[in-house]
Design brief:
The strands form 9 sheets. The protein has a 7-stranded mixed sheet with strand order 4-31-28-3-15-13-14, sandwiched between helices. The protein is α+β, with helices and mostly antiparallel strands. The chain is built from 33 helices and 31 strands. It is elongated. Among the domains are: 198 residues, Nucleotidyltransferase, domain 5 (2-Layer Sandwich); 98 residues, RRM (RNA recognition motif) domain (Alpha-Beta Plaits), CATH 3.30.70. The two termini are 56 Å apart. It holds the Pfam family RRM_1. This is RRM domain-containing protein. Keywords: Exonuclease, Hydrolase, Nuclease, RNA-binding.
Length: 800
Amino acid sequence: MEPSSSAAETCNPKKRKTEASTEHNSMKRSKTEEGCDEELQNRPSGSPRLSVQLDRLQQPVSLLELTELLHFAALGTAGGLKQPSWCHLHHQKKVKGVNVVILEGLSQSHFYKNYLTMEHLRTNYTTRVTFTPSPISVASGIFSSDVPKLDRPPVPKSDDKLHKAVKHHPVIKKYGTQKRGVTAYVLTQEEMIKNHFPVRGIRGFEDFSCTKNNVRVTDDSPLYGLDCEMCLTEKGHELTRVSLVDSDGNCVLDELVKPQSRVLNYLTKFSGITAAMLQPITTTLRVVQAKLRMLLPGDAVLVGHSLNNDLVALKLIHQHVIDTSLLYKKELGQKFKLKVLAEMVLKRQIQTDENNGHNPTEDAAAALELAQYFIKTGPHQVVELHLEELWGYKPKEESSECSPAPSHRFTDILRTIGRSVTYLGKRADVALDLSNQQWYSTDKEVLSSFRRQTKNLFLSIVQFSSFSDHLRRHSAHQEQLHQSVCSDLRDMCVVFAGPFPPDFSDREVRRLFRCCGRVRNIRMLNTSVRIHAEVAFEMLEGALLALKVLDGLRVLGQPIKVQRPVKESMLDLDLYLDTLLVDSLNSKHLYAVKPSQQKAQNVNISQKVNQYVVESKGLSATSRKLTNGLPPAKKKCKQSHLTTLKLSEETVREAFDHFGTVESIVLPSKCSKHVCIEFESSEGKLAALSSSEDLLSDRFLIHPSVTPPHLPSWVAMATAETKSNEETNEGRESAHMDSSSQDQAGNRVMKKLDVRLRKVFKSLPEGSLSVVVLPGQTSENGHYPGLCLFQVKASRENVK
């Protein structure tokens, strides 16, 4: 006589506790999913939002498609643009700004490897799409992109008086309107004499040292920024500090210098030099001159602001110079201060500390960038862009006439209609005028600068480079680390099963396990006594169903155990999966699988997960023995359900539509037996889950989706297209040698990144479209897709 179910429950407190825990988790999941729907419903009516159809969501977006969205978000139908081809931006007119954050060095795999750490990204961004790595930088691709021909192009500011002002401007009179190279702006000897530069053979400069500038200057000659600080001595102004930066803005020399004569005034307010600073210094002017001669190549062009004063203090003659005080000319010989030019042209604050003086390295870099910007942009555009703010030209009423050949470049159109365009990040070759670039050496500085000016920005691109720097500092094998990350993610879809009867083949293991989902690979593990198998699924849900359905199944009278691999990377897997279950992106999605028609297996999940029935028709002799371990009652199966139709969208809708409106269905392939179902609301999904036993009459196994909807399969996301399997295996072994320390260091960097991303998002104005791009990586040995995350900040947005 069998014990009653209540008695069985009383005798098995462990089971009762497990069921209670499962029920609690189910309730918790339900509340979370309902909360996600409620949050969407409670968004202010008419708020901007982005939507993507499920079938399109599973296709990667390219840089071209990303810029298509950014163009529409910024210009909209008023600019004659249509909705992007791959998504729909609702209420575009209410978009107040566009912010793109690029996380250099990161791929989609890195995000999911650190999914628990990236709390802000996974909870505050409601759209994720795989990103195809681009051969050009994302920032340059956005800035240099052309907007399709506009039906109603913005009217540029243009009138006769503006043309006249530009035509007779002192800069245009001096340099013309055409872009030219470096040599066009190098001072001639006559100009140097006129502006009091030290020149060989001129009286007063007989004891000056000369650099080895005997090589002819070309447009490819390197530029070096120079700035000096002086103090007042008994013999006049003498050198106390010199700074030199190279063409990339890197400081190559920064030296304090001991004056030869007694100091009367350190001029600390301007120079920042004090007596205490110079007291231990022994470096002399001759030493500094020697260092400069050694550092400067023969064709070097020195750049500075009022550079003649610096060369006089250095007692140095250098015949190739560009002076930014003369480059940005004013009427009647007047000159702009370097601080003014930096603020107006470079949008950068320098010389901000009035008490501690100037920083010569900062000033040298600013002068260098001003010269580079002038050369790259050309005199005509420099004058037009800064005519009002720098030279004080006041435009009259705008003319309705358009310029003969308006630019279709995205950034040009935005500036034409008065919207700001800015890049903040490490110095990079970005296709944007230098005046709109702000360079910083650390992510902390980038964030701080962005937060100070965010309300004045319309299109801003922020690049965080800390993870890329981390890879360069801590790993000589970046490729192997990428492969290690992918390997850990693939292991999440793996289960171990056994023991199996002798002579049990991998084909028979596949038949057994494919009732839970598509099996990617079977590896038989033969010990000296028994046979086990490693089963790798395509989908996370397949592995979860196998653990739930097949663990404890009796094969030839002996139960098999189905379990996860035990390894370091799997220690937090339960927490990871629980977090994926309550991910807002999965709130309305359901995974369903229909076992194969021929050699089918029908499973009921109710008692233990109560019965496992295998159709004997068409199975091999060994496979038929599977049913010998089952009671006769469990062998009986409704024959009408063993000949179901092939899985199709119609079949799925017929089975699931009565639970709630099915919004979309994705079948990975025509012969696929698993499907991703998106309901209109989470109630439909929950109703289907509560009716899992009824669905078995239609031979459907179901599970809450854990794979985010933009991924066709978990394994596809975690599998890089590598050059060769041999290289992959070697790389994986190499990368795993120090994976623990690498994971810990990488996790800390990712956590800081997530905090900074939250601060960026929090500082954005309401109605801003926020895009986070993990650009991915393409190399000779592998292709690692990136990831794009999108969210329009609502007026009532609470950042977690």
